[in-house]
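Hey,
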Amino acid sequence: MTLRTRLCAVAGGVALTLALAACGNGEQTTPEEPAAGTATEETTDIATQVEDVHNDADTMFAQMMLAHHDGAIEMADLAVEKAGSEEVRSLAERISAAQGPEIEQMTSWLETWGEQTSPMGHEGMDHGGMDMEGMSQEEAMAELESLSGAEFDQRFLELMIAHHRGAVDMAQDELDSGENPQALGLAQKIIDDQQAEISEMEELLQGL
């Protein structure tokens, strides 16, 4: 075999090897990636299931606290108009601003659970069944309407302290008997927030 023949044979073998390698690479497949959004959809389903989990204590907590928050906001909004001191007015604004979103949250839960927003409709609820120093919500509002200046501030603080203590008791009942994780979390938040506000209002009372 001549040198030229040998070189041609070698070149042909190299070309064949490269061709086979190219064909082999073309047949390789990449692992299939999971469909976009699958993990997110599963996470959403789990979150929805968690929100649906509830018992009678969760339902009662949301229903009664809704009405109770309504009463607090009614009193706070009046204080924004009539408070004699800026400290009391600022506190009232913060109470109203904090409890509004919580009302929306609890309303959403009750709708998700297929429950009414109150056990017997809003009529006859007396703002969560809580009174303030033996006074109903309507009686407390009537008294506050009749006051002004420092007298208003003192009575507002006294009644709101009693109102907050009622909310803390209701939230503690939820922690003791509730089941829904979101409702339990809100109950603890209400306890923490309103106990802090009670301490603030007691200090304001001492300064009047």
